[in-house]
Amino acid sequence: MIDHSLQLRLSQKLALAPQLQQAIRLLQLTRIELREHLQATVEANPLLEFEDMGGEAPAETDSSDDWESAGSSEDNAGAEDRYDEFDDGWGEDTGMSEQWADAGFSVERENQIADESGDSLRDHLMFQVELGHFSDRDAAIATAIVFALDEDGYLLDDIDDIRASLLPELETDEAEVKSVLRRVQRMEPVGVATRGPAECIRVQLSVLPASTAGRDLAQRVARDFIDLVADAELDRLKRETGADDEALEQALDLIRSLEPRPGARYDNRQQEYLVPDVYVRQVDGRWVTYLSPDNDPRLKLNKYYVQLLRQSGGEDRKYLQGRLQEARWLLSSLELRNRTLMNVSQAIVEHQKGFMDDGEIAMQPLILKEIAEQVGVHESTVSRATTRKYILTPRGLFELKYFFSSHVRTMDGGEISATAVKAHIQTLVENEPPSRPLSDQELSRLLRETGIKAARRTVAKYRESLGIGSSSERRRAYRRLSARGTD
Question: The pTM is what?
Answer without folding.
Answer: 0.54
